[in-house]
Every structure is written in C-alpha cells, then in structure tokens.
Amino acid sequence: MNLRRLLHRLRQLDAIMIWPALAVVVFGELTHLPLLQSLDIKLWDKALHFTAYFGLAVMATVAVRADRRALWWSLGLVAMGGALEIVQGMTGRDCDIYDEFANALGVAAGFAVGWAGVALLKALKILGDD
To answer: What is the pTM for the complete model shown?
Structure first.
C-alpha cells in the first residue's frame, strides 16, 4: 500500500472517529462522574478544555482536507463549546467563561495545526489538491 492510499484511509478513519470524539467531549462536559472530577483536580480544568477542542479541531480539519469546510467546523465547535457551557449551568456544574476561552483557543490552535499539516503534505505532493 503506498503512502497516498494509507493517508487516504487514515483520513477516512478520522472522518468516522470524529463523531465518537464529539460524543465523549459532550459527555465529559455535562457529566458528574467522580472520575472526571478527579481529572479536574489533577489537571488544570482549562488544559482539559483546550486539549479536547484542539483534538476535535485537528480531526475536523484533517477530515475535510483543510478546505473551507474546516472553517465552518471550527466555528461550529466554538459555538458548541459555548452552548455546552451554558447547559452546564443548568445541570449543576459551573458555567465558566474562561472554559469557553480555552475551548476557542484549542479550536484555533487545532485548526492551525491541522491546516498546516495538510498544506505541508500538499506542498510535498504527498496529497493531491483534489
């Protein structure tokens, strides 16, 4: 199997796996499980938010091969993070604007890294422009 075909298969897998990843992030933001609360204690809560949204943004950008849909995905992820912060306040968890800032920074960084990675592969002619 050549590299181009392997990268295509990995991108297809990424496009499928973004849905369970979204579900995990939504569940993590809205749940009251003790395990997740212990993560908040051991890791800085904002780092968890940044990392989750960074990963989602990279996955979304790679899944659409860094075309303009990646921007829409990124804006949607920021909106989803804001909506989840509001819903958190209704579930007994703390609604925090700084969590949304961490979400948005994670999305921006993930979008940039994903876009740069795909652009590099296209520049090296490992990926086509199609």
So the answer is: 0.88
